[in-house]
Amino acid sequence: MVKHDSGLESGRVRQLWHLLEPLHAVLYYAPEVFEEAAALGYVTEERWPSYFPYRAAPLGAVGAGQVASTFYSFSPRMVAEHIEPAWKIASPEALLRARVWGVDRAYRAIFGDRTESPELAAAAALARRAAEAADVAGRPLAAANAALDWPETPHLQLWHAATVLREHRGDGHIAALLVAGLDPVESLVSFAATGAASVERFESRGWSPDEWAAARDRLTARGLTDADGMATDAGRELRRTVEGHTDRLAAAPWQALTIEEIDQLVELLGEFWVAVLSSGLLPSETTLGIGKV
Predict the structure, then answer these.
(1) What is the CA radius of gyration of the chain?
(2) Which of 72-76, 199-203, 285-289 reaches the highest mean pLDDT?
């Protein structure tokens, strides 16, 4: 395993992301969060009308172009469809309040009495130290979330820390994709080609069949996919390089913790990670490719 400046192996950096990502993602799937969005006036029959404003709210009332840039792999048309009306329905400030209230209710439903446990409080304290240590220069989504006030309760501090750290990693992932020469749709096509998730799952990000096919043709011309759209050895190596760069760029916040504290955090997070996954809220297949690369 490659070690980064923090002293952590790539696998450990990725494991921390795997543990924290579901804790953040409750925002996009929990019924309690949808109820808060519906109370503001958003359509909630599907997740996208609230996903885009909830995630973009820390940036302020920005336009679709800026959201498409920071979200990267979504079709600009899809972003515009949901962002152009978003701030007319509710302000970013109202959305920020709603997402905290929704996650508060969701966590209490998922974790029950463990919401108030010393183990959760300890995990929150460790994750917060890492999040507060994150250098957010050049990372717009991480910076916007890091600038928000910290919630008072430990369970919401854990969610906020998970959010800052996952957006910090996501911003770095975009940098790694840019270095690899993968544009937004190519980033999806190349990942689908490795078997990270089904093409149908990746197509949920709004690209047309023609755009998908054109991106696959560009990758084939570079020797990254074959005639059937499957990743070649070179294509798989490029994706491994991208994920390795992403791990390296995500490692720095963990320098705020000792290796022993990181081990403790991994142990503490386990039961809450299991609780979220066991809740059935999150899809079994996502475009993140967790556990696939």
Answers:
(1) 19
(2) 72-76
Q: Does the pTM exceed 0.85?
A: yes
Cα atoms in the Cβ-side hemisphere of radius 13 Å centred on 165: 35
Q: Cα separation of 223 and 235, whole Å?
A: 7
Residue at 36 is within a domain: yes
Geometric angle at alpha carbon 240, from 237 and 246, rounded to 5°: 145
Tokens 């081990």 sit at which residue?
263
Is residue 43, in this structure, part of any structural domain at all? yes
Residues 6+ apart with CB under 8 A from 276: 22, 23, 25, 26, 110, 282
Is 288 within a domain?
A: no
Residue length of the chain: 293
**HEC per residue, 229-285:** CCECHHHHHHHHHHHHHHHHHHCHHHHHCCHHHHHHHHHHHHHHHHHHHHCCCCCCC
Please give the mean pLDDT across all residues of the chain. 93
Q: Is the pLDDT of residue 1 over 60?
A: no
> Based on the structure, what is the number of domains in the chain?
1
Range of the structural domain that residue 231 is part of: 10-278
- Tokens 């390795």: give the residue: 244
Query: Does any domain span residue 4?
Result: no
